[in-house]
Amino acid sequence: MSLLTMIVKMSEGLGKTCAIFFLTLLFALPLGMIVALLRMSKIKVVSAVTRFFITILRGTPLMLQLLAVTYGPYYLFGTTVARNKLVPVVIAFAINYAAYFAEIYRGGIESISVGQYEAAEVLGYTKLQTFLRIILPQVVKRIMPSVTNEVVTLVKDTSMAFTVSYQEMFTIGKQIANSQTSFMPFVVAGVFYYVFNAVVDYVMGRIEKRLDYYR
Description:
- The protein is mostly helical.
- It has a single domain, classed as MetI-like fold (Orthogonal Bundle), CATH 1.10.3720.10.
- It has helices at residues 3-39, 44-59, 62-77, 86-110, 114-122, 127-157, 169-180, 184-210.
- Helix 6 packs antiparallel against helix 8 (184-210) and helix 7 packs antiparallel against helix 8 (184-210).
- It is flat.
C-alpha cells in the first residue's frame, strides 16, 4: 500500500476522531460547571456524593470507563446504549472529562477573593448576576491554561476509542499496520495528532490573548 493510499484511508477516520473531540467538549464543558457547583454545595450530602463521583472518574482508567459504558448495559440488562458506538464513546468521554473540568472550575472559582462577592452585594447584584458578570469572566481567564492542557490531552485520548472497536483514525491505522506489517501507519497517525494538537493549541492561545484585558 502506497503512502498516499494509507493517508487517504486514515483520513476517513479523522472525521470520527473530530466527532469524538468536539462532542466531548460540547457536553463536558457545561457538565463540568454543573458538577463543580454541586461539589461546592453547602449541602453536605450533595457535596459528598459529587466528590465521590469525581473521585471514581479520576481514579479509574478512561479505557475501563469506555468498556463499562459500551458493554456494561448489555451484560447487566441485556441491552445496549445505542447501535451507533459513537454514542457510548461520547458519553464515556464527556463524563470523564467533566470530572476533570469540574475540579479546574472549582479551583478557579475558589481563587476569587470574598471581597468581590461582598462588593457586588453592596452594589445590589443578585448571586446569579455576581457569578455571571463578575466571577465567571475572571474564572475563565484564570483557568484557560489548565483547560488548554485538558483539551490537548483529549485530542490524544480519542485514540482510546479503539478499545471498543470504534473506527476512528487510530483504529484504522492499527488495522492497516497489522495487515501490512508496517509501522508507517503509526507514524502517519502521529503526524495527524501533532497537526491536530498544533491547531488546537493555536486556537486556545488566541482565546487566551483575547482575555488579556482581565489583567
